[in-house]
Specification:
By secondary structure, this protein is mainly α. The protein contains ten helices and no strands. Helix 2 crosses helix 4, helix 5 crosses helix 10 and helix 7 crosses helix 8. The longest helix is centred in the C-terminal third of the chain and has 28 residues.
Amino acid sequence: MTTANSRSGKPRSGKPRSGAEERRSAGVDRPRQNGVRSREDVVSAAGRLFSARGYHGTSMRDLARELGLIGSSLYSHIASKADLLVEVVERGADLFQESADRAMATSGNGKTRLGALVAGHVDVVLDHPDEVRTFLYEAHALEESQRARVLAARDRYEQAFRSVLEAGAGDGSLRPGLDPRLAAIFVLSILNALERWYRPNGRLSRDQIVEEVLSFGLRGIGP
């Protein structure tokens, strides 16, 4: 999947924070400090921290503090921080692919299925911001073999967009002669930027965002 430049492992600076990040910094999204945690708690907390601080900017001590645990007790749930990154990134990849599979199963022409892909992508970004940010910006920190799997998953997801764009160019619902690969890059770049500026209390609803993305995109790729 086309992404913005990879971030360093430092916390974000100079960028407006999303509503989710603001809640995290205020402690709203943190689990209760009761000392009892499941693996799911640990993975979710890792996703929050990787999303906000980056993989390299997150230590095991940070994770233990987030969960209210003694550092050594974390290893009853996980083998390493790297394993957590793999799990969070793969969750992000799975969420996008499941969305694409649903969209590709819909009936209709290329334009209709492109709309389903866009709507599904928006849903994943807005409903799973931690997994999405980690998938988009932290996969570069994976070991080579793991990174190769993620890149293959991204290419498979992008192929869904290329496929419907090519189909739309062929069936007349999109501009004949468009370059499916380039058009997919444009559309995904717009969609991936959503996590940077979207605010739950902003002026645009989820449906309006989908409509605006399609409206803007179709000016270039429409018939």
